[in-house]
Amino acid sequence: MSSHPRRAPDVLIVGGGPAGLSAAVLLGLRGVDVLLVERHPAASTLPRAHLLNQRTMEIFTEMGVADIVYDLSPPEDRWHKVAWHTTLAGTSAPFGQVLGTLPAWGGGPDAERYARASPCLYANVPQLRLDPVLRARAEAVCGPENILFHHELTALSPSGEDYGEGTVATVRDRGSGRFHEVHTRYVIAADGGRTCADLLGIEMDGPTGLLDMVTVHAGIDLSERISDDEVLLRYFINPDGRGSFAGVLCAMGPGRWGRNSVEWAVHTAFRTDDPARHDRAVVLDRCRRMLGIPDLEVEVHAVSHWEFEGVVARRQRLGPVFLTGNAAHRHPPTGGLGLNTAVQDVHNLAWKLDAVLTGQASDALLDSYGTERRPVGEFNVQHCLTNAGGHARIAAALGLRADQSEKEGWEAITEWLADTPEGETKRVAVAEAIASNADDFSQLAVELGYHYESGALVPDGTPAPEGNNPLRDYVPTTRPGHHLPHVWLNRGGSRESVHQLIAPRGLTLLVDAEHASQWAAAVQAAGGTGATVHVRVIGSGAEWTDPTGDWAVVRGVDSGGALLVRPDRHIAWRVPDWSDDRPAELRQSVCLVLSLQPSHTQPLPMTSPAT
Ligand SMILES: Cc1cc2nc3c(=O)[nH]c(=O)nc-3n(C[C@H](O)[C@H](O)[C@H](O)COP(=O)(O)OP(=O)(O)OC[C@H]3O[C@@H](n4cnc5c(N)ncnc54)[C@H](O)[C@@H]3O)c2cc1C
């Protein structure tokens, strides 16, 4: 066994899943020297995540992979619904019944409000097809020699707060068996929770081992068994679910979707102490039972197990190490937020690491990563756990209980079909229970409205706006900590989202054409921090104009005001109007946001001066 120094990247990324690969791309595009190590020889072949929400697609656009992802996604009319069934097929009622459906992920009546809220549409690509796209992009941006699959992190030293100028990681080349030392300033733990938190002794809080979910990824011909094409996910509520859902069927394409999908993921729920869950014949029998097709031909590609849990790390930074994605929080998939939150974690972290490594910010800026992201992870985990309960509400409305026999369960479902007052009451209750699941499938406020109350920002004392339904109704706002709302602007005859005005490095000051020269002078006068502030002007005679007036409505400040926006497009600071104090306030805010000590030695670099 040999151990010798291999190289010294600025950032070592542990894990080649969505979090790690996205981190590599986002840092690589900024010119940061990264090394990524992934334990497995190739990207995961398990179906796992597939729902990619609009914030994630905005980030994928920045990463240069959005077009490929949309190409892999189903046509819009082939996936924007979710359904609940008793079983998929069956010779007689109550088998083969559709209990109800809901529009999902920006489909049907939600289409317009989702489209208005972001320049990007939702996408749906199984992770086994997404991860290779991310890997190829990471290799193109960072160089294949810096994206090392079949290499694993085995130790971190020192692993505490006192890390001085960096840390030393031990990486094993699993092909040769040789160990290498990697000296690095920072480590992004994107290991899915399999390594770094344990090495660092960071504990996770929350329920674990709720269920053992078994996923069969298989080629199945269901074209004669399904009569609609719009449903992507089908939940099965029957006595096997013991008071909740018995399992889920998810179309996986590729190329053909709806009833003609070639591949499917069939998820069934087992108790964690049920030894039968490791018996493939039992698992396949459970799948066939759930679908109500005893003789179904199944061409199995893979069988995998995953734990139904909802846990959050007590901290997301320890010295030079940052926990991201599943290493920091693990969600049940009900809500489709695991991968999305993972990508959004590293988007928050990448610009901060770049700013610190290029001397635009101090190391203290990196503390804001956990301050900002941990509450989001915690909220999303709780929300996904709550979503899981939505299916139990449907089961309860049907009269299904964990302690009843199978026969009693089917009798309870039969009553739902009965032409009696009791049957009618049950149908109303089931319909209401299904409708309440819109908190999961129309959760636009969760997906786009996440924001930070403290961190790398200057609060302005205003309360966070909230819609009637705080999970579904996204309220665009420029309140500090929130994401810059999307509005289409005009640039030389073409439409461009206001998001595109935000520079990937430095801070961006959005101002109105009426007061552009004052703000440009303010940036100049407020100099001395060493940080770059880009001025972007919107309005009459400027490069970007607001022909619809939408920007004037949503910007939340008057024509003399300004918004200071971070590279991750979250608002850092805003002022409602112009005053002579603004240059000093701007300077102080830049220092606060980037954790810099004010000094008066040099002017702020300024780009794109006001027109
Ligand atoms: C059935 C199912 C459906 C889901 N659906 C959705 C969905 O629709 N939307 C959504 O957002 N999320 C969904 N998720 C969750 C999503 O899959 C995860 O949240 C996501 O994969 C997390 O990405 P990650 O990069 O943090 O971790 P992972 O994808 O787990 O990647 C971690 C990587 O680190 C590697 N690794 C671990 N230890 C080491 C080491 N010591 N050295 C080197 N490499 C190491 C592992 O091999 C692995 O490749 C779903 C999950 C499941 C199971």
From TrEMBL:
Residues 10-382 form the FAD-binding domain. The keyword Cell inner membrane does not apply. This is FAD-dependent monooxygenase. InterPro entries: FAD-bd (IPR002938), FAD/NAD-bd_sf (IPR036188), RIFMO-like (IPR050641). One of its GO terms (molecular function) is oxidoreductase activity, acting on paired donors, with incorporation or reduction of molecular oxygen, NAD(P)H as one donor, and incorporation of one atom of oxygen. It comes from Streptomyces chartreusis. PANTHER family: FAD-BINDING DOMAIN-CONTAINING PROTEIN-RELATED, TRK SYSTEM POTASSIUM UPTAKE PROTEIN. Keywords: FAD, Flavoprotein, Monooxygenase, Oxidoreductase.
